Amino acid sequence: MSRLVVISNRVQQLNQGPGGNQGGLAVALLAALRERGGVWFGWSGNTTPQFTGEIRDESEGNVSTATIDLEPQDIDEYYNGFANRTLWPLFHFRIDLTEFERDFAGGYARVNRRFADTVKPLIDHDDLVWVHDYHLIPLGEELRHRGVANRMGFFLHIPWPPSELLTSLPSHRRLVESLFAYDVVGFQSDDWLDSFRDYVVTRLGGIEGENGKLTVGERSICAMVAPIGIDTAEFEAAAVSREAAFARDRMYMSATGRSLIVGVDRLDYSKGLEERFLGYERFLSQHPDRRGLVYILQIAPPSREKVDTYQEIRATLDAHSGRINGEYADIDWVPIRYVNKGYPRAELAGIFRAARIGLVTPLRDGMNLVAKEYVAAQNPTDPGVLILSTFAGAARQLKDAVLVNPYSAEELSDAIVTALTMPREERIRRWEALIDNVRREDVHWWCDRFIAAMERVEEAA
Ligand code: ADQ
């Protein structure tokens, strides 16, 4: 069995122990690494005044992590620049927020070269190399230039934009061509793969073959859909743990007899938080009889705070929650509890289980794992209702959720009423269909599916 080399912007540290707070992705990748042996390589999160390429490694059995420090300029141009001011907004269809700076593109190329230079000596002849996400699209090509002939795959965790949007990126052609250095390129849903295929065929003159094969000039890739899942068994267990029960009781005691609506998202404009607050406000204004009987708990830990648009969305949400609470709160009831911090996974699972409604309404999302976590945490005999945006990759799998257009305050308001009044039998029926998918297509299934596709590739040259 070939070893695995995982490369991503950030690396999950080993040795987290049982009290650790690993997400499902880290759990699955570490499980695959332990099964095969291998290395996980990426940026340490630290800066250094002068890039040296020095690798810090840590190992545990047959698995190691290897990290490098980057210069402040790298972080400005590559991470806060091209990755999060250019690609992230553009790939989430927010051309209005996309910044096009040559310095960003230059820094992005430089950091990808730095990654390639430093990781290359860690790759053995027969290793499978699996690169993750938009930070590292050109890495495969940089590795090929350095003579790496291994089987290589790339997985995009975020959406792939329609060609009309992508072509607004000055370097769009080079970026897409560089993906042809990989052997396998994976997307979260059919929608994103369709957009990618459209670009390749209509703009690059690529040719479609069987089983996802796409050919441009001399190079062929296998382009596939591999929807990511969660570690469902782990999350289901977390939802009935002592920590979860404690969190659930805290929620119940603080709001006896009121229905909890929960939202948990990184504070990011792609998550549709502003529209969610406005939809909830519409619900409060249209249904005076229901005021006081429900409340929203919105948990939104800040992210990417160096990027201006993230400071702006934070200020906007502060303003909306303050205004809505000011307008509707009473001496014994607050309609929105808005919390800007992270919680341990078991507590989160308990909060999900206490919630009558899970509100997952991104404007655009590659997949969205919170939707799946909400489903996994429910009580099978009295499950809550998932309200899910049709623009999340997860909506392709979770068809039995109450699907909404998150831009429409009226639809959101109606969906809340539908969920609050849904009979128990219907809740159970929908939940059973949802959990069936969340269990079957979990994160281990996803990982195995992608690795199997890489294994099917004949060794390059
Ligand atoms: P994200 O945009 O980060 O991921 P998501 O899929 O929802 O979005 O994952 C977020 C994770 O962080 C979830 O596991 C959630 O429980 C956790 N989390 C969020 N807020 C938290 C809090 N306050 N406390 C503790 N944990 C919290 C990107 C893409 C997604 C894609 C994933 C995986 O944008 O579309 O689903 O990668 O591929």
TrEMBL record:
Give a yes or no for keyword Glycosyltransferase in this entry. Answer: yes
| CDD domains from the UniProt entry | GT20_TPS
Q: Which InterPro entries match?
A: Glyco_trans_20
- EC number, as in UniProt: 2.4.1.15
According to the UniProt entry, its GO molecular function terms are:
alpha,alpha-trehalose-phosphate synthase (UDP-forming) activity
Read off the PANTHER family from this record: BCDNA.GH08860 (PTHR10788:SF106), TREHALOSE-6-PHOSPHATE SYNTHASE (PTHR10788)
The molecule here is called: Trehalose 6-phosphate synthase
Organism whose genome encodes this protein = Sphingomonas jinjuensis
